[in-house]
Amino acid sequence: MHNIEExxxxxxYLTANLPGIGGVLRAEPEHFIVEExxxxxxxGDGQHLYxxxxxxxxxxxxxxxxxxxxxxxxxxxxxxxxxxxxxAKTTQTFSLNVGHQPPAFADEAARRIESELPVTVNWVxxxxxxxxxxxxxGNRFEITVSDLATSSEVALQRSxxxxxxIRRRGVPNYFGVQRIGRNGANVRQGLAILLGERRPGDxxxxxxxxxxxxxxxxxxxxxxxLELGAFDRLLPGDVAKKTATGGMxxxxxxxxxxxxxxxxxxxxxxxxxGSRMWKAKDAAGRLEDEVLAxxxxxxAHFERAGIDGTRRVGRLLVPDLTVEARGEQIVARFTLTKGxxxxxxxxxxxxxxxxxxxxxxxxxx
Length: 365
Hints:
Blueprint: E1 24-25, E2 32-38, E3 48-55, H1 60-70, E4 78-80, E5 89-97, H2 104-116, E6 120-127, E7 136-146, H3 152-169, E8 171-172, H4 177-180, H5 185-194, H6 203-227, E9 239-242, E10 248-250, H7 254-262, E11 266-272, H8 282-293, H9 299-304, E12 310-313, E13 315-316, E14 322-326, E15 329-337, H10 342-350
Parallel strand pairs: 2-5
Antiparallel strand pairs: 1-7, 2-7, 3-5, 3-6, 4-5, 7-15, 8-13, 9-10, 9-11, 11-12, 14-15
Helix pairs in contact: 3-10, 5-6, 6-8
């Protein structure tokens, strides 16, 4: 028998041998700056007006609702690529289905938005389709750590050493506490749903809680890779993903593929369990089986819940990670692909209690 209450939530550090800088995230919104990296550029014509704006103190959905009201649009006529946090300074693009309008409409719309909403409009441009969730490559971050545990000089030395290690090795692509919930609260509710002990009426909540459960099992798999010394190397039977194209394939010859892994041209993928997930084989497949067997769940539970499953890149690459001292603070800058959590990078630098990281609500998958 498995006990839902007894969840292993440990997320070991990749850089456990290097001391962290401590500190506090987001003492103010300008300490957590996020800029969306779009999947494509607006074409310059079409019935959707793309508005790129910078906001603070507003959620993405609050901006969506206010834009719909401002332009008299139906609910859902304003699209966006990902959710951005309220208590951060974020830049993202919205699409407004305004129909075919003369060119002058764009500039007038920008003036209206800036006069009615507490935002800065960076650019406006027409395009042919609505922005939908996932229409982004990733996000650029500039994150300031204040209240350091040591002098800024020592903190800079420590953070530079950690950053060099991360650039070389990447980090485990863990899901953050925002998905898992404080002390695993979301995971426990997701388990109860999958085990038939709870039936929430809200479809979005049901899907989110089940995904939290998948995320937890994915984390456990990544922890096992780290513990086995199999984070810096491929395993026989891994399902690998190409960094440049996203193409996936089964690793049959580890010796032949390992140099590409070291060069960060390919990555292993981790399981998000479900009834139709592309399953790893050989040693990698056995490790997946062990992780699922250690939980109260089987593939049948996901099948009954209608969850197909998928795979997630297991090694998060951060080749552009830089750190610098700004007064008595440390500023980190880096870019992440969509679905990755900036706090997973920051926790390696800071090495603080998870509660100090959960103040950031980032989850735009």
